Amino acid sequence: MNLRKLCCIAASLGLLQSCIKDAPTNPEADITTFAVPKNQLTGDVFIDQTKRQVRLYLTDSAFKNGIVPTISVSNGAKVFPASGDTLRFDSTGTTQYTVTPATGGKGKIYTVRVVGTGNWKFGFERWDTVSSEGASWKYVNPLADDGRNLWASGNIGIAITGVTEINDFPLHVSSDAHDGKYAAVMETKPGNALSGWMGIHLFAGSLFMGNFVTDYLLENPLKCTQFGQPYRGMPQRFTGYYKYQPGAQFQGKDGKPVPGVTDECSIYAVLYSGTSRLDATNILTSDRVIATAILTDGSAKADWTHFDIPFQNLSGKVVNMGEQVMLAIIASSSKDGDHYRGAVGSKLVLDNIEIVNE
Amino acid sequence: MQLMNIKISGLMLGMLMATTQLFAQDNGQGQTKTDDFKPMLEHRILAGFNFGATAPVGLPNTIRKINGYWPEFSPSLGYELSYRATRKWGAAVAVKLDYKGMGTKDEVQYFPTIITTDDGGRFEGDFTGKNQTTVRNAYVSFPISAVFTPNDRWRFNLGGYVAWLFSSNFYGTVSDGYIRNGGSLGEKIIITEATFDFGTEVRSFDCGLQGGAAYRVGKRLSIDGNLNWGLRPIFPGDFKGMSFPMYNIYLTLGVAYKI
């Protein structure tokens, strides 16, 4: 070996750094937006990337006449039926959009669901098992008694941190029911190593009416919980049954025990104006809030306890004629769970809830 | 991995045997020429810096752009014992304290990663965005070489090395992008900035090929350049934080002082 050869080797070492290959073809196959004119909507369109559903909240006339959605997809991907094609709703109100990625490989099939705002009585008798192709996790989510997807929880966020078993998720199904076979149970769970990296040492059990977006999971988890579904009229009362057992040891955001504090549950409903959803950062503070119904007693209840809370309008706020409003129901096994404070083991069981209209 | 170890040890054994055979031949020649050369031991102090990269051999297409590269402070200090069997041929073994480090800034697209945690947690996803990585690993390494000394000025060596890790750093940030849970069809999670630290995952044993040249500039002092090419990926096979194997590829530039 001579010096020249050595220099060649040294030079090739440098070259390794400079050989950038051709860009990989985009393997993504998202419907990124599904735009419908605002005057045809009672609530913003929601694209559930986990269940691969496009949820539409439509006015009666839009439902009757069909809509012409403008669809955008991942770069280079193709969607069928195409953007701009009229979408009419058959008797089940369901149709499918197929997105093929630029790579031509496996794509995604999105199902369109028109979410009606029917009755607001929930017995938590129907549950849906949610998973993803090839994923090791599985969790459950309640459906409305007629199968509508109105409810969500933080479970998908927790699945992403590596929790896999149905009963290890904070929200799952309980066979201890007030009425019927099942009820919803929320249980505050300890965080894990991955969530610890994000500074989260506790997963409060939550169940809320609305949708969960994963986009902000790392950036601002409180923005992931999109509270509310379209509502008509002015709700009068929020009623239901619950049981609550606070966990033994309250802990702060840092995961360290805080002596002398007992965890409390929270159950409340919020009516607000508009069609875009409020989230955990502003659900009680937004100036769009019209009325609230908040359970004030969050203490332990060993037996089924009935609650019946009248909605209270914020001063000067009413529902104006023709105004689009949304209603959110939010429940958590730890009242400060949105700030990652609570007691591991706190357990809230909820059943037979209802929004009583005028 | 076991197989690889065997392969590498086999390779090094082969090189050693080749060296000894060369000695044998040369010794024979020496005798016939009735050379007055007497075999001797030499001692050298080696000092220098490592420049290079802990990098894949050939960049995968998920790496779109390299926005920056800088060598970390990576000193190399050691002692070499060589046996000069004939005027031209010999063998050397050294013990070195080797820091191998660098930093890069790059942009990646659909970069698969799997993060596992001590409590059994696991996150798998494809990341698109910016990445900044700092590597600084310290090894005690034992290079072993055949040495060729054609004349008074030049000295060449070629061989292999084994190295044990005693301190490791492999950390960085990902930013301005998103990760998709489970793969390219999964849920999107925006990442403004997040940190990672794979320091504890770095393998404790490294080995590879090394070779170089020294040019004598003073009575005892030589300028020394030596390339160390790791053949064992620095992360174990079951580590999936990086989807490709990465190797220690460093050039030591420094001096050798004969004592």
TrEMBL record, chain A:
Protein name (Swiss-Prot/TrEMBL): Putative carbohydrate metabolism domain-containing protein
Ranges for domain Putative carbohydrate metabolism: 137-356
Signal peptide: 1-23
InterPro entries: PCMD (IPR025112), Put_CMD_sf (IPR038653)
Key words, A-Z: Signal
Keyword check for Signal: yes
From TrEMBL, chain B:
Pfam families given in the database record: OMP_b-brl_2 (PF13568)
InterPro entries documented for this protein: Beta-barrel_OMP_2
N-terminal signal peptide: 1-24
Keyword Signal: yes
Keywords, sorted A to Z: Signal
Residue intervals of the Outer membrane protein beta-barrel domain: 31-235
Entry keyword Signal: yes
Name of this chain's protein: Outer membrane protein beta-barrel domain-containing protein
